[in-house]
Hints:
The complex is a heterotrimer. Chain B is α/β, with parallel strands linked by helices.
Amino acid sequence: xxxxxxxxxxxxxxxxxxxxxxxxxxxxxxxxxxxxxxxxxxxxxxxxxxxxxxxxxxxxxxxxxxxxxxxxxxxxxxxxxxxxxxxxxxxxxxxxxxxxxxxxxxxxxxxxxxxxxxxxxxxxxxxxxxxxxxxxxxxxxxxxxxxxxxxxxxxxxxxxxxxxxxxxxxxxxxxxxxxxxxxxxxxxxxxxxxxxxxxxxxxxxxxxxxxxxxxxxxxxxxxxxxxxxxxxxxxxxxxxxxxxxxxxxxxxxxxxxxxxxxxxxxxxxxxxxxxxxxxxxxxxxxxxxxxxxxxxxxxxxxxxxxxxxxxxxxxxxxxxxxxxxxx
Amino acid sequence: xxxxxxxxxxxxxxxxxxxxxxxxxxxxxxxxxxxxxxxxxxxxxxxxxxxxxxxxxxxxxxxxxxxxxxxxxxxxxxxxxxxxxxxxxxxxxxxxxxxxxxxxxxxxxxxxxxxxxxxxxxxxxxxxxxxxxxxxxxxxxxxxxxxxxxxxxxxxxxxxxxxxxxxxxxxxxxxxxxxxxxxxxxxxxxxxxxxxxxxxxxxxxxxxxxxxxxxxxxxxxxxxxxxxxxxxxxxxxxxxxxxxxxxxxxxxxxxxxxxxxxxxxxxxxxxxxxxxxxxxxxxxxxxxxxxxxxxxxxxxxxxxx
Amino acid sequence: xxxxxxxxxxxxxxxxxxxxxxxxxxxxxxxxxxxxxxxxxxxxxxxxxxxxxxxxxxxxxxxxxxxxxxxxxxxxxxxxxxxxxxxxxxxxxxxxxxxxxxxxxxxxxxxxxxxxxxxxxxxxxxxxxxxxxxxxxxxxxxxxxxxxxxxxxxxxxxxxxxxxxxxxxxxxxxxxxxxxxxxxxxxxxxxxxxxxxxxxxxxxxxxxxxxxxxxxxxxxxxxxxxxxxxxxxxxxxxxxxxxxxxxxxxxxxxxxxxxxxxxxxxxxxxxxxxxxxxxxx
Lengths: 327, 305, 281
């Protein structure tokens, strides 16, 4: 891996990769068999072919692909991501609003799944094969295999429909003006999607921590620590915790890709107005500028997770920090 | 004073043979051994014959898929996996094979101090064992082979132990360092510590030990004073011990024909019998440990000379 | 005396594992064949039986058009499996080719393969699937290709690792020294070593493909609404959840969940049985 390389080299690599990813997204989106013009003006438009042609050339739709890409990139650096067809607003504004909604959702799920998952994983590892371990393991192995959106539907059915504790959708009550929406309203609408995303993300953390605990508990250095007269509690505190925490936190940062996917599905089930619902709306409406913008933002999101993961290793793992790593 | 006494130890692992048959792999059986204070007992056997399992069994470190029979006494008290832990780190110290037994993400100094030691004693021991200033701030991967060994020795001495169990403390060291390591052990023993030294290097063991225990196919065939091996090999009681001495380069350099039986397919009776020139029908019976000429041996022909 | 062999129990863990794997395989193959052979009448529209709750006649109940949800689920699952089969086939071939190439040639080939992996994992997987499906104009073709060309990275890494390990192992180096040709070494040593890894990897890839297909379908970019796919069924179910038609969502999802668990079980089981180092307890 690239852990031993310097941070600068790592950042350069990521920038190149980000460029390549946005190019890939651009090619995929622009070669779709839809006419962005038609989706913009609608199929019933009475625009003359000449007028259409004029708009097309004004937008640069007739230019060759590389030129269009660099035009888009150039505009991007000036902060212009184009206009969203779906929301009739600048793409940058749409993404800004939507992403801040999603960030709240993802942050809650990420922190909760990380902390609870880590603690449960430690407990399972410590009591390997106990009833507690078996139950937790079975539940989360099952949940790991469950489709996120189905889980969301079940949670929605139980808590919103059958019990009636929570609203069925939307981040704010329908019919209330935006300025009237209170923090309490938002939290109330946030709980179910956040809960869904938390338990979906938690499975990996639990199973990873548990396995790591079991492996470390059998490791030479834990056996040796036992011969040094350390109690189980001391061993957990001095050796196991230290050796699991870093990889577990790193894994949590490296899982931004799955987190984003889970978020998109959860948002669609709970009609939560974040970037996930915007993605589906953009793709359904052939909203090319918005789709491009979202792809770019989601790639940056995944990249920053990976970057943080690598930096964490570089800073906190002595084997890498102090250089001359053997492995 | 008798520190450690192991009686008729048996260690077996559950394994899967090709496919779906589960079976028991007997790694150690009928093993008896004792260590007194002030002496070095070297358990000598070829690599991969299961010697390290002996240390793990005594220290209660065996993995879950294993089980153990027999009795272990420490200073006359019967101990098991749980009760031995109260002696460990203070009364009993273990010196493992390699630096891999140190926590990779904890600084050396902190590990040497452990939970029972003090910073002062660590400094004192580091000075005594010529560990350079600053070693305590290093991580295990930053230590050279020789440094790592001394770190492990200082860790063992942290609690002023009465009994030290050292598992292959010399591999990976050059001859000079290996001799130095053994000199350290000798000094410790002369000051009253009992040492159980597990090694495949019979030459080094002969140079330092008081008694030699010959380990073969999971059991100890003979325990005798080191003199019998060095000066009076005719006094040795077991044909295998004699063959072992004859195989040394400084003696006849005469290889032993055949191979050790694999722990998976052991037969009853003396396990050395197929390779032994004294073999006869009696060897197929159970052979108990007997006292012969001031040593212990497991051979029906030992008394014949 | 030396023989301390306990009598081996008839049902040790490996035997139990094998039996569960067989049950899982029979279930999956059964659902697959049943779904493929199912006539359209079985899950056709019947306006006399709208919104029936689960009963002995309709195990999973019926939907707003009176379609039997049990048969729709079976059919849907078998369609998912066909798509899964195709995409696993393609993805695993990409993986084995890229994995072997990068391990054998190293250097810039290795760099290119690694870059391709990073590129493929640079976007959230779901977003990438949507984009590819979007580019292909959605539908069966879109989702199949999307699933087929995005599931190879992890397996490529696995195979690359495995080839590297075998290539540098003592017995392969010895075989070269003894004058064996590259081809002979490949046939005699490398391929037998890679094959189990390949099959385990492919089996474990299957549930991923199916899950992603159904997720993309659920969002409306995969299989068309006319097909009784699990994703379609569940997205329809969403509109009826408000009125308390819970069975429309619960059972079809459960079917998918069980299929995914069984595929995982077979994959992990194979891993366990083929790797002698594990499971000695």
